[in-house]
Design a protein that fits this description.
This protein is of the alpha/beta class and 236 residues long. Helices cover 30% and strands 21% of the residues. 45% of the residues are buried. The chain binds 6-phosphogluconic acid (6PG).
């Protein structure tokens, strides 16, 4: 089941996405005592992370993982971990034992092995936050990546040609099994990709975010009007 929520600005979409995630996490904690969340990087999440930092939410019951990480040290400006640490984890006082970063500064295959062992402790993520690039990539699954078709493994090291960079990423099986997937996508540069992902012919290797059509749980798209300009408002 997929829902689309459209907002006037990228920040409004991000804040709404953040509120939706907190509701789902609170539900999971009420049901099981704890919740597992995986977050993405990029620039769109900033207003969401900043809202979480000020929310007063009890993060001690939430295990926080990453969808993907660039092959850089944790203090590098490109690091998704550093971005989350500065905008959310630090200001919110998230306990260290709840933070499960990807050690992407290690050699790629070792980093992937260690993270695979870490996420093996998560039977199913309650919530996974994804972004989508203008090329319809999500996580670090970029167009042409053969692992987009993989449904056996949970984590891989992928070499991203367009950035000449190794990355560690969750693979579709782990992503699609989540209880709730939220996708935050905003900006006019994503209009064409979003149309292809939500309404185009199925071709996930060309449009990786199309894998979300096969999610086990709910998929909630948080969009701004610019990104949503070429899609119908109907949920599918
Ligand atoms: C990353 C992210 C990536 C991101 C998209 C969208 O490591 O960059 O995990 O998948 O979500 O590239 O990024 P923006 O939100 O900056 O558009």
């Amino acid at each position: 089941m997929s829902e689309r929520y459209v907002f006037e600005s990228p920040a409004a979409a991000a804040r709404a996405c953040g509120g939706y995630v907190l509701e789902r996490l609170a539900h999971a904690v009420a049901a099981r005592g704890r919740a597992a969340l995986a977050i993405s990087g990029g620039s769109s999440p900033r207003p969401m992370f900043e809202a979480w930092a000020k929310s007063g939410f009890d993060w001690s019951r939430v295990d926080i993982y990453w969808v993907d990480e660039r092959g850089v040290p944790p203090e590098d400006p490109q690091s998704n971990y550093r971005f989350a640490r500065e905008t959310f984890l630090g200001p919110a006082g998230v306990p260290e034992e709840c933070i499960h970063r990807i050690e992407a500064e290690l050699p790629p295959e070792e980093a992937a092995r260690r993270y695979r062992d870490a996420v093996a402790r998560v039977e199913r993520f309650d919530v996974i936050h994804l972004g989508m690039g203008p090329d319809a990539h999500t996580a670090s699954l970029f167009p042409g990546e053969p692992l987009i078709r993989d449904r056996a493994d949970s984590v891989a090291a992928v070499y991203v040609e367009k950035f000449s960079q190794w990355r560690i990423t969750l693979l579709p099986a782990k992503i699609l099994a989540a209880g709730t997937l939220v996708v935050l996508a905003a900006g006019a540069d994503k209009t064409g990709a979003l149309h292809q992902v939500l309404e185009g012919a199925e071709d996930p290797v060309a449009f990786p975010a199309q894998i979300l059509r096969h999610a086990a749980g709910e998929v909630a798209w948080f969009l701004d009007a610019a990104a949503a300009a070429q899609i119908s408002s109907a949920a599918d």
